[in-house]
Amino acid sequence: MGLLTGDMLGPLAVALAVFLLLLDLMQRRGCWAARYPPGPTPLPLLGNLLQMDFQNTLSYFDQLRHRFGNVFSLQLAWTPVVVLNGLDAVREALVCHSEDTADRPPMPIYEHLGFGPHSQGVILARYGREWREQRRFSLSMLRNLGLGKKSLEQWVAEEASCLCEAFADHAGRPFSPRALVDKAVSNVISSLTFGRRFEYDDPRFLKLLDRLQAGVEEDQGFLHEFLNSIPVLLRIPGLASKVFSAQKAFMALTDELIQECRMTWDPTQPPRDLTDGFLEEMEKAKGSPESSFNDENLRMVISDLFAAGMVSTSTTLTWALLLMILHPDVQRRVQQEIDEVIGRVQRPEMGDQTRMPFTMAVVHEVQRFGDIVPLGLPHMTSRDTEVQGFLIPKGTRIITNLSSVLKDEKIWKKPFRFYPEHFLDAQGRFVKQEAFMPFSAGRRVCLGEPLARMELFLFFTCLLQRFSFSVPAGQPRPSDHGVFSFLVAPAPYQLCAVPR
Ligand code: HEM
Ligand SMILES: *[C@@H]1O[C@H](CO)[C@@H](O)[C@H](O)[C@H]1NC(C)=O
């Protein structure tokens, strides 16, 4: 008992402090490498965590970029982070070294949702067999479902009609389009994951969308980063379910929907949706305990696709409508092109795109300007990698600043303006741009890109075919500055939709 009293305490504290500092140095030895990217001086244990202003991350990073250049480092507790800016650095890391940078950092924080070695979903899966299996599965299911009887394009077009009907109910009166756009986009992804759509006033649907939105918001901020950096804290009983209650609720609703699919699944029929396809793979994988086709992963994969497929596309469409009311001249030119190529009666089809260069340029410019995933998703190096002459050791978290590519001043004529001509040549033909990277690039490039492209084009043209949009009379012009809340979305705004 006398061991820890009086004289002993002082030396013991010193020894403990020395031990912790040594441990800290060991954990961070990567940063001592020659040619490691420069960055702000980290404190022991916490690194730069306390210096980060989580309310205003973007402007803090802006300062660092000015001080240290396009490639700089940060230390979040024991996690070394390297931030890449500009087309050259991002392309070199994601495209030239695509294999070395395809890993994701471990996210212990998601274990409370069921994330585990064989149930990693797709988005956050570590680079390895489980990720490869699920990425390949998702891509091939998306392809197959598009080619099925009721083709994907038709699904989207029908949902676009429902959305137009819902807009028509508000015609003439100012309203906020966000909630309706959310529903339409969710129904597209829901048709793929669960083979069904929901009525726009279905209470269960409303709850699902509400919990998804709230869940996305739980994924940001200091507490999230702090818990992920120091995951032992998650062992505190009840903490995870308190801090992540919306995500838990969203998963519970996903479970219900999966269960309903299961009850009507007929293994002798071709899969109606991704859930059917997954169940089929689970049957094939029976007896191989290593397979990533298992019950736990079913809900991870399906909820990943639902969340990724819904929030990003809907946010982009909300940007598109905002930019149309702010730039009525651009809106008119799109409508003119629609009238010439499609007319007022025919439904828009993907095939029309080749004859609609201006509309194509506008949709691309909406994505470039909207810049909704400014920092991409985190990557991690799986071996020592060189980028722009800097050495990035294995196990370093990489932040690809997609915003710095989409707004690279060396490339775009008017990086901070909405200017569809960025994607048009002198003859008015559509031109691709290498720095157009809203879906990222390399092995982890967004797997929903073709689906998103289809939704953006069809929803956008259907809406502009039917309505003219404007800032409601007497209301101030809404701002085109995005608000960062996991994704960058326009601040809530209202518009008027007048049938054409
Ligand atoms: C305008 C709409 C969209 C945008 C801007 C977007 C953007 C992105 C970005 C930036 C990433 C990160 C890539 C990386 O790690 O480097 C990503 C990943 C992903 N996206 Fe999308 N996305 C969109 C729509 C969709 C849709 C509709 C789906 C649904 C099928 C989807 C599914 C995914 C998945 C599963 C991943 C993870 C891929 C992986 O880790 O291998 N996305 N997306
Ligand atoms: C990303 O790029 C944008 C635009 O160039 C810049 O404002 C922002 O500070 C950058 N963020 C980071 C993390 O470097």
Automatic annotation (TrEMBL):
Cited SUPFAM superfamilies: Cytochrome P450
Subcellular location(s) per record: Endoplasmic reticulum membrane; Microsome membrane; Membrane
Domain of life the protein comes from: Eukaryota
This enzyme's EC code(s): 1.14.14.-
Gene3D superfamilies linked: Cytochrome P450
EC top class, as a word: oxidoreductase
Residues that bind heme: C446
Main location per the UniProt record: endoplasmic reticulum
Species for this entry: Ursus americanus (American black bear)
PANTHER family in the record: CYTOCHROME P450 2D6-RELATED, CYTOCHROME P450 508A4-RELATED
Pfam families, sorted: p450
Family that this chain belongs to: Belongs to the cytochrome P450 family.
Summary of the function given for this chain in its UniProt record: Cytochromes P450 are a group of heme-thiolate monooxygenases. In liver microsomes, this enzyme is involved in an NADPH-dependent electron transport pathway. It oxidizes a variety of structurally unrelated compounds, including steroids, fatty acids, and xenobiotics.
GO biological process terms on file: alkaloid catabolic process; arachidonate metabolic process; coumarin metabolic process; estrogen metabolic process; isoquinoline alkaloid metabolic process; monoterpenoid metabolic process; negative regulation of organofluorine metabolic process; oxidative demethylation
Annotated protein name in UniProt: Cytochrome P450
GO cellular component, one term: mitochondrion
Signal peptide (UniProt feature, chain positions): 1-33
